[in-house]
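Minutes, project check-in
Item: structure for the 77-residue chain
Input as provided by the requester:
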Amino acid sequence: MGRVRAAAFEHTTDARVSVDDQLAVFMPLRGSTDDARRTLDLTGDGNVTLQVHQDQNADAALLSGVLNTPATRAGPT
């Protein structure tokens, strides 16, 4: 299961304004084709995870420090 934040907006004459947000949980449909996702723990404590397709070559050990590295930008600044 993955957790995301869902937001509700109201449309005004000028813009859309956020009026509420909640944590939401989405569970993939189960059946003859089971869930092809796998979850990688990026922090070691389960607080930050990354969902990837089971066929993707993603290694949690190689990604574990990615959130602690300085930010970089690509493209025009």
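Outcome recorded: The radius of gyration is 18 Å.
No further action items on this chain.
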